[in-house]
Amino acid sequence: MPFNLTRRHCLQHAACGFGSLALADLLQAGTLSHSLPQPHFSPRAKRVIFLFMQGGPSQMDLFDPKPFIQQRHGQPLDSPLSKTILQVGTERFLALGTPVPVKPRGQCGMPMSDLLPHLAKVADDICLLKGMSADNPQHMPAELQLHTGALNDVRPSMGAWISYGLGSENRNLPSFITINPHADVRYHGASWLPAEHQGTRLNAAGGPETPPIDNLRNLSPDQQVQRKRIDFLQRQNQRLQQALPDDRMQGMIEAMELAFRMQTTTPELVDLSKETQTTQSDYGIGGKDTDRNGRACLLARRLSEAGVRFVQVTMGGWDHHGDIRGNLPRLCAQTDQPVAALVRDLKQRGLLEDTLVVWCGEFGRTPWSQDLSGTAPIETHGREHQPESFCAWMAGGGIRPGFVYGATDDLGYRVIEGRIHIHDLHATLLHQLGLDHTQLTWNHIGRDYRLTDVYGTVAREILT
After folding, report:
1. Predicted local distance difference test score (pLDDT) of residue 24
2. Which PANTHER family does this entry report, sorted A to Z (predicted)?
């Protein structure tokens, strides 16, 4: 039996017009008007903000430097890889040291690069995971595993699973929103879960002249006309649904009602001009390097505060096969201030306590260099993909703050302590939301599926 089928009734069919509402009113107006699915046990977190660093950030340059590699910079290493593994551009296996110092930060002494000065100021609020691991060295399957738990299948994304398991805190907003998403819809899709659980795409790339959500503006002369148009279409949809019962049609009916409500309430919510200039500056909005990600992170906070259950923010560009010494500072400059501002802002508003923030790429990067030309000086080399070990961090939602968990070997290749696989990350995330990952299932083509497949262990060592 699917877990808690009543969740598809979270979106009622009544129209609700609220006019212009302040952000603080949006949650009040949209909650407690529908029956929410119940968690399996008392949760520590109510919502998730997932910050996806697409491309694979270099853990060695940011969080996990290795003295052995630093001492051997530019010298050949003994390869730990099987001879059958093809590593383009790494035939010489030259040690690539970290050019920017990684120092202890905060009272906890968390290792962090000088490239992350803003994040360093909130080190005592985050939990650094140094023993992450995944199963595939290629971007697409590794990204798919991070988002869906599967390497090569069409499965529901973790945002869809969480929406299915808990519903939305605000009936006027989707339970899952993805900001600046990857083009692959599988990363935020619902697959065979009801369509209402798929992620709503939001573009945070521009100012007020760029609609953040497609068709958000109501083109009807007024709201009453729009309501009549929707009612007409819904009558046709209901008639078709009665003649040819189909869960997908029911999902479309509910999605259309939600879209109508969003046209009334969401424009106010995504209008960042309502925030103070101080807040906008803190996030880096208006900055040359930080504007796009600053807008995305501030929107993530506003959406979470208003009751969106799962907000995903994609920040790409971390795939540094060449000139990592030149490219990594640029990416850090684009992401460090907005991300740190998000953590700080959530804490100041009392939201971090029950909001789980996750920062993670699909894998990490090798301690040896990569030179695709075969002849370039080592100062211009990059790093190859490394799923065997990498770093992520979490904050809020019952996660131990100022805590470093896990370790890798002297080479920075294998996890030797505190290993957390992607399945374990998913199990832990669901656990903090009050969901047992082994019970959150959906029966599809004759078998029960879940986000963690048949794997996953909750990392209780990092919980408060």
Report:
1. 45
2. BLL7424 PROTEIN (PTHR43737), DUF1501 DOMAIN-CONTAINING PROTEIN (PTHR43737:SF1)
Please provide the distance, in angstroms rounded to a whole number, between the alpha carbons at the two ends of the chain: 33
Q: Is pLDDT at 83 greater than 80 in this prediction?
A: no
Query: How many Å apart are CA 257 and CA 234, to the nearest integer?
Result: 9
Cβ neighbours of 207 (radius 10 Å):
11
Greatest CA span in the chain, whole angstroms?
73
420's enclosing H/E stretch is: strand 420-421
Contacts of residue 183, defined as CB under 8 A and 6 or more positions apart, other chains included, come to none
Q: Could you report the per-residue pLDDT of 343-396, keeping only the tens digit for each?
A: 999 999 999 999 999 999 999 999 999 998 888 999 999 999 999 999 999 999
- Based on its alpha-carbon atoms, the radius of gyration of the chain, rounded to whole angstroms, reads 23
pTM of this structure = 0.87
Amino acid at 269: L
241-273 pLDDT, tens digit per residue, is 788 777 666 666 666 666 666 666 667 788 898
Three-state DSSP class for residue 8: helix
pLDDT at site 6: 32
Pairing between strand 126-133 and 403-405? parallel
Find the Cα–Cα–Cα–Cα dihedral 68, 74, 76, 82, rounded to 10°: 80
Reported as a single tens digit per residue, the pLDDT across 154-187 is: 999 999 999 999 998 888 889 999 999 988 999 9
Task: Return d(Cα 72, Cα 261) in angstroms, integer.
Answer: 60
Report d(CA 418, CA 420) in Å as an integer: 6
Task: Answer whether 278's CB lies under 8 Å from 32's CB.
Answer: no
Q: How far apart are CA 452 and CA 458, in angstroms?
A: 11
**Residue 18, pLDDT score:** 29
Instruction: Judge residue 140's burial from the number of C-beta atoms within 10 Å of its C-beta, 0-12 exposed, 13-18 middle, 19 or more buried.
Output: middle
Contact 448, 392 (CB under 8 A): no
Q: Where are the beta strands (DSSP E) in 102-206?
A: 102-105, 110-113, 126-133, 176-179, 200-202
Q: Which domains does the chain have, with CATH numbers?
A: 5-85+117-416+428-462 (3.40.720)
User: How far apart, in whole angstroms, are the C-alpha atoms of residue 377 and residue 382?
Assistant: 11
> Residue 226: pLDDT above 60?
yes
What's the burial of 41, exposed, middle or buried (CB within 10 Å: 0-12/13-18/19+)?
Answer: exposed
The single residue listed with the structure tokens 């939990």 is: 127
Closest alpha carbon to 172 in 16, 355, 21, 36: 16
pLDDT at 239: 82
Question: What is the SS3 assignment for 79?
Answer: coil
